[in-house]
Every structure is written in structure tokens, then in C-alpha cells.
Known about the structure:
Elements: H1 2-14, H2 19-32, H3 37-47, H4 52-62, H5 69-78, H6 87-108, H7 112-145, H8 151-183, H9 186-193, H10 195-204, H11 219-237, H12 240-253, H13 259-269, H14 274-299, H15 304-320, H16 322-326, H17 329-332, H18 337-366, H19 372-401, H20 411-423, H21 429-433
Helix pairs in contact: 2-7, 2-8, 2-10, 4-7, 4-13, 4-19, 5-7, 5-11, 5-19, 6-7, 6-9, 6-10, 7-8, 7-19, 8-14, 8-18, 12-19, 14-18, 15-18, 15-20, 18-19, 19-20
Amino acid sequence: xxxxxxxxxxxxxxxxxxxxxxxxxxxxxxxxxxxxxxxxxxxxxxxxxxxxxxxxxxxxxxxxxxxxxxxxxxxxxxxxxxxxxxxxxxxxxxxxxxxxxxxxxxxxxxxxxxxxxxxxxxxxxxxxxxxxxxxxxxxxxxxxxxxxxxxxxxxxxxxxxxxxxxxxxxxxxxxxxxxxxxxxxxxxxxxxxxxxxxxxxxxxxxxxxxxxxxxxxxxxxxxxxxxxxxxxxxxxxxxxxxxxxxxxxxxxxxxxxxxxxxxxxxxxxxxxxxxxxxxxxxxxxxxxxxxxxxxxxxxxxxxxxxxxxxxxxxxxxxxxxxxxxxxxxxxxxxxxxxxxxxxxxxxxxxxxxxxxxxxxxxxxxxxxxxxxxxxxxxxxxxxxxxxxxxxxxxxxxxxxxxxxxxxxxxxxxxxxxxxxxxxxxxxxxxxxxxxxxxxxxxxxx
Length: 445
């Protein structure tokens, strides 16, 4: 096993592109900012007294910048800032990101409206940096494709690097997030989090990018460049090999979310402390990294249809296993709550990552030259929009079933009903994909 890892590292070193470094820093910064997740949840739950449904709704509103990622992609593709398409935007929005965390630590914990506004601005800044990082990721993948006969392997490697490093950042933050709440206030943790986008800003100054001479383009040329990006994007999106998989991805991601109600259940019913919740987040991140490694080493050549259907069914059964916890059957069977949650979390996150990885690779595979950021951002915004609707669906079902912080009696029914949504896209996979594997289709602009 170690010989195989060493060979893979040697191959990666030989094909190393300096852009990998800035990609890794962007991904790590995004992942490690999850250090503040528990503090945000406790702030909304305890300081502002939000119910699970309202907390889910408000958090979904703050993530709306991720839904319009194509717009940010269009800006960075067609509007160079200070002569650079990528570098300047990372620096600018990295600064905004850091200032947002600082402002949240100073002014956001006393007023709900201020907190939500600052969280929205933080998400906007993080999202824009993410779009630029993913655009560089796709550019590197496109360069590699001209040197390799198997683009699928190149796309898998680049996606694995980005999301693997991001998961590693999440792993680091999860290791400390719960324990830090025992020693520091939420405000101090928000201030600590500001250090990570600040580090990204410093590193970005050393990123080497070909400069675009603004004098080479007059105002009409710039306008035409933007319109051409929009035209290329729309023409490309009309390809059935594009919009059909996008529709499938969107439907899959719309499954109602149970994350907020389970946070309340963990803290109020099971009495989990922040330190153990941090351990759960650590397990999530570790399982994500394991999922990335498993996919990249053993599953990247498996046809999309086969792996998507298999992992979706497995994910459904892992999700339904939460019924054992919320009905307290695990206690009757002599299984400790913490032990059950750790084991269930490993399986749920691992299978979920194996389910998501082929979608991410497919998104990278679809992107044409010159509109990399716009196209990849559109595909990722489909995932984000579906997730946002999933959070709102989850909040709606909580209200319909009367599940809240004072009544968990129908939580098991909530899990059964919302789990059905996970399986709903499966009958359409054959219609969308047909007998063709989208991995192997010649998609070009």
C-alpha cells in the first residue's frame, strides 16, 4: 500500500503544476473556516433562541451567493481586475472575507439581523474565492488533458486534490472546533477564523498569472468579450449531454435536510457537549478524505450510472439508520449513543462522498475553454441551489410534522418521509444518461 502511495506521489511530483499550490491554499482556507461552524450554530440556537426550522431557513438564506456562482464566474472570466483574471479577485475577496469574520466577532453576536447580514457577506466572499480557485482547477485540468489521452484520470486527480485538501482543512478545524468552545468565547473563535482568509491573501501575492493588458481591449471589446462568454455559455448549456445530467444532479440535491434538527437532538436530547460535536465533525472530515482516496484509487473508472445508482441506494439506507437513534432503539440494544453516532457518521459521510465525487468529476469534465469559471460555477451552483432548497424543504417538513426543540416525537417519521426524496431521481437515471456514459462523451465548446 505504501509503495503504491509513494508511486502516486512521485507521479504527482513529476507532473506538478505551480497552480496546484494556490488551488490547495484556496481549498484549505475554505475548509478550515469550518472552525466557526459550531460557534455559529450555538449562537443561533442559544443567543438568539431560534427553532430548528427557523435556524435552517436563516442559514439557507445566507448561502444564496453560492446559488449564483455563474455570475461570479462570468465576472472573473470576462472582467480582469488590475490586469488579472484570478489573482486580484482572490486578494480582494479574501480581504472582504477576513473583515467579515472580524466584524462578526465585534458586532454580530448581539443582533440577529447583523449576524445574518455578516454571515451573508462572509459566504459571498468565500464563494467568490471558491469560484476563482475552481476556475484555476479546471484550467489546470484542461492543460493536463492536452498532454494525456485519458482526460477522466486528469479530471479525477484535480478534483481529488481540491476537495481532498478542503476536507483536510475541515479535518483540522473539526479537531479543534469543539474543544475551543470550552476555552474561548464565540467571538474569539470568529476572530481566529479571520486569520485563514488573511493567510490566503498573503499567499496570493506570490501567485504567478499572465497579466492581461487592459489597453489591448477598448470598451466595445470588453463588452463583446462579456457577451461572447454569455453566448458560449448558453450554446454549451443547450447540449443534452449537459442539461440532462444537470437536471438529475439538481433533483438529487433537493432531498430535504435533517442537519439542523439533528444538531438540536444531539445537544438537547442526547446531551452531547461541544467537544463531542467537534469529534463528530472530525469523523465527517476524515470520512470525506477516505471517500476521496477510495474514489480516486479504485472507482474513477466505474461508469457514472453504475456508481451513482449504487451509492445513492447505500446512502438511503445509511440515512434511514438514524431512525434507530431517534427512537432510542440503540439503547435497548445496548449500543452507546456516542458509539452509534460515530459509526453512523462514518458510513453516512463516506457513502455520501462516494456519491458526490463522480458528480464533481463530471462537472469538471464538462467545462470548455475560455468559460471555465462560468461553466463549472453553473454546475456547482446547481448542487448548491439544490442543497439550499433541501434545507428549506427540511424546515417545511419540520413545521408540517410539528417537530421542534420541544417535541421530537415525530422525528422518526420526518426521517422516513425525507429519505424517500433521496431515491426519487433514480428512475430517471436511465432516461437522462441512456446507454451512454457522460464520462466518455466528447463534450466541447
